[in-house]
Design brief:
mainly alpha, 4 helices, elongated
Length: about 90
Amino acid sequence: MQLTLEIPDKYMQGQNQSQTTQQIKLYAALLMFQSGQLSRGAACEFAGVDIFDFFLACKQHRISAINISAESIESDVLRYQQRHTH
């Protein structure tokens, strides 16, 4: 799915569009993870980062990556197994 955002030029001056796009995706993933809408694995996939970069972003933004539900851990394990059994 593609999403288009209208961002005023004054906020994009001197900004690299590709980097800004990646940053917005990461911020959205962090917020959705923090609110419980995404598991860690899904948030990593959404943002296009590996788990280590995601943990680093959580730390930088003071978002707990440890207090997670059993369902979230199970989801992460299942996603990992699906990716590495093919």
